[in-house]
Amino acid sequence: MLSGKRIVLGVTGGIAAYKAAFLLRAFQKAEAQVRVTMTPSALQFVGSDTFSSLSRHAVAVDIFPGNQSDKNQWTRHISWGEWADLFVIAPCTANTMAKIAGGFSDNMLTATVLSARCPLLVCPTMDGEMYRSAAVKRNLATLRGDGIHILEPEAGYLASGLEGRGRLPETEMILEECRAILEEQQLRGLLSGKKVVVTAGPTREFIDPVRFISNPSSGKMGFAMAEAARTMGGEVTVIHGPVHIPKPGGVDTIEIVSTDELFEQVKAHADADVIIMAAAVADFTPESPAEQKIKKNDDASSLKLSRTPDILSWLGHHKREGQTLIGFAMETENMVEYAQKKRESKKADWIAANSIADHNSGFGTDTNTVTLLGENVRQDFSGTKKDVARQLLDRIFNTG
User: In 3-state terms, what secondary structure has residue 92?
Assistant: First the structure.
């Protein structure tokens, strides 16, 4: 995936700047072409000669360099921005991140960011509690909202001697993220012009004002499917239950709580071209929720339940021509058998099945192992939930 790709590597003024030299060499070993731009502060940690020697190309630092022998140097941010297939800033300090979020272009690196017509990957690094500060959180949210990729820093021993989050991830992790981003680029356009609805997270069925029936769904898989659909050009609406993770950028979101609320919203958006039912929907609801909190000394010792609407089945039996319906199935045993029966009985086009028995798969995890079932199709996918989401949609829409 990296072979032959043209990468601009941005280096900013943090202690991890020296690690960028190892990253550059890793890109080259993967047969990518690399050019380097540095902020003036980065020169306090690593000299530009290091990167020019390794990249065999002049390093861009100042918009108006002192050496005027090349009168086109001041437009280098334009030519590099058009040349690159991927722009990676590693490490990226809080200062540079704030400049990018605000659209500032006071050095060659930040000017090239504005000129770039390729994906941008930012690898934030900082010390102490800086990464937890309100300003950094706001800037991260802005960057994500602008479609910029963020690779979260690792936790560990920092330059100050403190323990915390702020370390530059290992080189191979950065390479893996770069490959994933470039893979996304190849998938762009698969859902262009399509309306996509994704459901995500849990539903809650209240027993009384303070207790409810629910499940541990975090919404991560549903949000990953929404991000993948958006990347592929879809016009995405996410209908989600109560979650505590950042919402995907560039999509419309609708918050619900109960299964009935989810059903109403799904019916209102049932004309979508693609519907992905990734929400973990409660199958039962109390028949008579208490208006006040039930006390421990109350006589009631049983709870009468009724079934909630089967939303996937309703969609399958009301599916219009040309619509694609994708369901999810979480099982504890006989996963493929039960999921295949679910696909057939509910008239879904595809079912993505996974087992809660695997500790690296299912509720709350960042990774997943999924078996995709379709008409005469069975295929396994594994990786991060973002990777799996891309793989699923690629299989469904790129190869039928």
Answer: strand
Catalytic-role residue among 215, 354, 376, 398: 215
Structure token pair of residue 163: 């323990």
Confidence of residue 382 (pLDDT cuts 50, 70, 90): very high
Model pTM score: 0.65
Q: Tell me the fold of 195-398.
A: Rossmann fold (3.40.50)
Residue 283 counted as an annotated binding residue? yes
- What does the alpha-carbon distance between residue 235 and residue 129 come to, in Å, rounded to a whole number? 37
In the chain, what percentage of residues exceed pLDDT 90? 76
Is 349 annotated to bind a ligand? Reply is no
For 319-349, what is each residue's pLDDT tens digit? 999 999 999 998 888 999 999 999 999 999 9
Please, which residues have CB within 8 angstroms of residue 116's CB and are 6 or more apart in sequence? 8, 80, 81, 84, 87
Cβ contact 363:345 at 8 Å:
no
What is the C-alpha radius of gyration for the chain, rounded to an integer number of angstroms? 24
To the query of whether residue 107 is one of the catalytic residues in this protein, the response is no
What span, in angstroms and rounded, lies between the C-alpha atoms of 241 and 128? Answer: 34
Is 309 annotated to bind ligand? Answer: yes
- 168-212 confidence digits (pLDDT tens): 999 999 999 999 888 877 777 789 899 999 999 999 999 999 999
6-187 and 195-398: same fold? Answer: yes
Residue from 144, 152, 95 nearest 123 by CA = 152
Q: Say which CATH superfamily domain 6-187 falls into.
A: Flavin prenyltransferase-like (3.40.50.1950)
Helix (H, G, I), strand (E, B) or coil at 364: coil
SS3 34: strand
Mean pLDDT of all residues belonging to the chain: 91
Nearest to 6 by CA among 118, 163, 90: 118
- What ranges do the domains of the chain cover? 6-187, 195-398
Q: Are 85 and 5 in contact (CB under 8 A)?
A: yes
Asked if residue 312 belongs to a known ligand binding site, the reply is yes
